[in-house]
Amino acid sequence: MPRRRVPVLLATAILAVLGLGAGMTVAPLSASTLPVARTAPPPPDQFTVVVASTLDSGQSPVLGTDGRLHVVYEIQLTNARADLATLQEIQVLDADRPSRVVASFAGDDLLKRLRKLTGKEPAGSLAIPEDVSRLVLVDLAFATDAQVPKQLIHRFRLLGQPVAGGPPAQLDYTAAPFDLVGKPLVISPPLAGKGWVDINGCCSGDGIHRDTVLPVNGHLADTQRFAIDYMRLDAQGRLVHGDPTDVRNYTAYGAQLLAVADGTVVSTLSTLSDQVPGTLPDPSTITLANVDGNHVVLDLGHGVFAFYAHMQENSVTVKVGDRVRRGQVLGLLGNTGNTSAPHLHFHLMNGPSVLGSSGLPYTYDRFAVAGAIDAARFGASTTLEGVWNQGLLPTPSPRTRQFPLDLTLVDFAG
């Protein structure tokens, strides 16, 4: 159907309704009076054999306890041609200054970031079979605010089947914009007291939270990209003393969990029993409903939700619909759900679904860095037993509006 033109008479009627038409004469528009639109020509089309997009449209850079601004996201790739596509390099560019290369991944560095769709399993090869998708885990760090671009774009160099078909050819194109905007939410810590250890934390590609990408509610979601598992050292530097199969022997067990901000309770569970430490539960017993054990979800407003997992049985003190205040006790730290030792799993997300939302960065209003656990030693250990306080600082370092990084020892108020 041809597009209909709005007659000048209609424009006159609208002006009259608005009280602007009385005594006015509406002159017909001529070609000489029409404004000339000056727009830049559109960029040329690109033949993108490997289709690329980020799981989220953007993120707020977050200031870590190392003094750097961290950005963590994922790129989904799909080979849309009937032949192998082999990645050679992915460059992260400043979208406003494409000549500025923020980061570059190639060879083994790219291979270790390339995963099958749910993130856990390595791709094993830079070659992507036809009609197959992959994920790329991207972790960036900037020294100053001035270094952070407003938007990123990605340059892909690969061998793939050209538009006319035939053998693989060298291809080079940009795709997958990602915005870096805003500031992360500032919250209070979810725990009180000294000696807390940030385990399985941000920001590298090899943590158990970092690569937990799940197909939930019709899309891929990385809810846990900024999640932290909190355990606690006692005065002797131990996470556990005595029999490690007894939950009560873990220093963190029974700690009070606190509301990080004012909010509304939108989900709770409090009926599951503690697991025996040292082993994970039978996978056949795990469901989406119980994988995180007893828990609380708070709606903090403005599209931000806080999640507390693995709480003690019958310890949850709130119910759905309750309004809570910052610092209010929500329950006790336990060992329920898919867990092998008592800890608090905590993260922020952009929806109430604990597995199907997008994980959000955040900072704590105030705390102190007390030191760090040696990453090589912790990674090589097969047990949580022993003394882990060798990395304590002589004096804790006060911090404000920062995010604790993996294996940092932190002291909270209280």
Characteristic terms for this protein:
single chain; 414 residues; mainly beta; eleven-stranded antiparallel beta sheet; six-stranded mixed beta sheet; 3 helices; 6% helix; 37% strand; disordered N terminus
Q: Brief description of this entry?
A:
The protein is mainly beta and 414 residues long.
Describe the SSE topology.
Elements: H1 8-17, E1 50-54, E2 58-59, E3 62-63, E4 69-79, E5 85-94, E6 97-106, H2 107-113, E7 114-115, E8 127-128, E9 133-142, E10 151-160, E11 169-180, E12 185-187, E13 196-199, E14 214-216, E15 219-221, E16 228-232, E17 256-258, E18 263-269, E19 294-301, E20 304-311, E21 323-324, E22 329-332, E23 344-349, E24 359-360, E25 362-364, E26 367-372, H3 375-380, E27 392-399, E28 408-411
Parallel strand pairs: 2-11, 12-25
Antiparallel strand pairs: 1-4, 3-4, 4-9, 5-6, 5-8, 5-10, 7-9, 10-11, 13-16, 13-28, 14-15, 16-23, 17-22, 18-19, 18-21, 19-20, 20-23, 23-24, 26-27, 26-28
Describe what this molecule looks like in 3D:
- The structure is a single chain.
- The chain is mostly beta strands.
- It has helices spanning 8-17, 107-113, 375-380; strands at 50-54, 58-59, 62-63, 69-79, 85-94, 97-106, 114-115, 127-128, 133-142, 151-160, 169-180, 185-187, 196-199, 214-216, 219-221, 228-232, 256-258, 263-269, 294-301, 304-311, 323-324, 329-332, 344-349, 359-360, 362-364, 367-372, 392-399, 408-411.
- The strands form six sheets. Strands 13, 16, 18, 19, 20, 21, 23, 24, 26, 27 and 28 form an eleven-stranded antiparallel beta sheet that branches. Strands 2, 5, 6, 8, 10 and 11 form a six-stranded mixed beta sheet that branches.
